Each structure stands twice: as C-alpha cells, then as structure tokens.
Amino acid sequence: MNPSDEKKIKWFPVLLNAVVLPGFGQIYIRQKAKGYLLASLALLTVMAAFIRFMSVLFALANVRASTSSGFHPFQLMAEAWRLDHRVLLAFAGGFFAIWLLSILDLILGKPATD
User: Are 9 and 21 in contact (CB under 8 A)?
Assistant: First the structure.
C-alpha cells in the first residue's frame, strides 16, 4: 500500500456527514458504534430543540386563547422565538458541534481499511 493511499480522504463519507446526517459517514466506513452515537446525538439535539420550541409556542397559544378572541399563528411563532431564541441557538450550536466533529473525525481520523 502506498503512503499516499493512507492519507487519501474518502469524500463520499464526508459528504454523507455534511449533507445527510452526522454519523452516516462513519456508518458507511463501518465505524458503526461511532456513527450511531453521532447520529443519535444529532437527532436528539434536533428533537429537543423542536420540543422546546413547541412547548413555548403552545404555552403562548394557551395564554393568547384565554385573553383574546383570536391570534395570528405567525405572530405567535415570532413571539415564541423572541422569548426563547437563546436556548434554540444553544441547541443549534450543539448540532453544529456534532456536525463538525463528525466531519473532522473522517478527515483527520484513521483511514478506513478496505
């Protein structure tokens, strides 16, 4: 095996991580435990952010429904964002860290053996 082959980056797994979901590239190169862990962390981060935003949105909707006769859903979403944007940005930062870690692991980590 050539030394240049050892340093060769396989771009398809990197593309899987970058475009589809973090961890899919690791699963593709048969690092299944690491891939499933990264994919699970990424999905849990997205689900937690969604649940948090929806809970704030429903709480606002309950308050609006009890105090007024009507409300506009987009105004409600904007208000929920204003109230909770720091927490949602923290979730986005967590997802970005997982995404970046999964890509750097493929680029800088040990090459997969075929």
Answer: no
Contacts of 71 by beta carbon, 8 Å cutoff, 6+ apart: 61, 64, 65
How confident is residue 1, by pLDDT bands cut at 50, 70 and 90? very low
Helix boundaries (H) for 19-69: 24-28, 32-67
Q: Which pTM value belongs to this model?
A: 0.78
- Nearest CA to 53 out of 37, 76, 23 is that of 76
The span from the CA of 85 to the CA of 11, in Å, is 35
Radius of gyration of the chain (CA): 20
Collect all residues with Cβ–Cβ distance below 8 Å to 99 and sequence separation of at least 6. Answer: 17, 18, 22, 42
Give long-range contacts, CB 8 A cutoff, 24+ apart: 61-65. Answer: none
Residue type, 32: K
